Amino acid sequence: MKILILGATGRVGSQVVSYALCDGHHVTSLVRTPDNIQIMDKKLTVIQGNVLNKNDIDCVMSEIDIVISALNTDGTNTLSESIPLIIEAMKKENIKRIITVGTAGILQSRTTPDLLRYQSSESKRKSTRAAKEHHRVYDILTHSELEWTIVCPTYLPDGECTNMYRVEHNFLPEGGTVISVADTAKFTYQQIKSTKYLKSRVGIAY
Question: According to the model, what pLDDT value does residue 70 have?
């Protein structure tokens, strides 16, 4: 399989790259600074560019089977501004499947079900900026024809892959407060072979 991984230099994205290469897939990554990619593998193609540049996105989308986006908000509008370009490029290449890494803030609230967690008292975060950006991406994907999945982790410390976590459609598993970067990356990667969470958010936590 040929996988395009965006956000490949981030904490989650870099581990997704490792999982994909370990399984023998061909990986393409679009990064602003190629030197930040520490992995050397003949099945890895690193292309310098910017997800906000339409030509760069069009270039890396050729012959791709599936897209995984682990892009960070970085205090900007990069997520919401890049997703229309990504969707358009995928449509041109007839690519249907995209898996993105979001945030637990855009899952439904258990206390106030008509609100998202970041909009309710359920969320303890003081800043909602990142959640609002992920919310925009969620809305855009919802109105697309893509087969999308948004993996929504809660607090993300570094840690080993345990494969011992809980997941739930559209909600954060009850009482969940933390999930490691490694487990989040592993679950995200595993969705390339799963149709269980198509057109759905999925909460993940211990």
Answer: 98
Q: What share of the chain is helix, strand, coil (3-state, %, to 5)?
A: 35, 20, 45
Q: Residue 204 has what pLDDT?
A: 98
Beta carbons of 147 and 97 less than 8 angstroms apart = yes
Strands 166-169 and 200-205, bridge-based pairing: antiparallel
Closest residue by Cα to residue 203 from 20, 175, 16: 175
165, 152 contact by CB (below 8 A):
no
**Strand intervals (E) in the chain:** 2-6, 26-31, 44-48, 66-69, 97-101, 147-153, 166-169, 200-205
User: Which pairs with CB-CB distance under 8 Å and at least 24 residues apart come from 124-132?
Assistant: 129/73, 129/75, 130/73, 130/103, 130/105, 131/103, 131/105, 131/106
Residue 30, pLDDT > 80, answer yes
Q: What token pair was written down for 14?
A: 């870099």
Tens-digit pLDDT profile for residues 141-199: 999 999 999 999 999 999 999 999 999 999 999 999 999 999 999 999 999 999 999 99
Q: Tell me: the pLDDT tens digits for 33-73?
A: 999 998 989 999 999 999 999 999 999 999 999 999 999 98
Q: Which domains does the chain have, with CATH numbers?
A: 2-205 (3.40.50.720)
Distance CA 65, CA 73 (A): 25
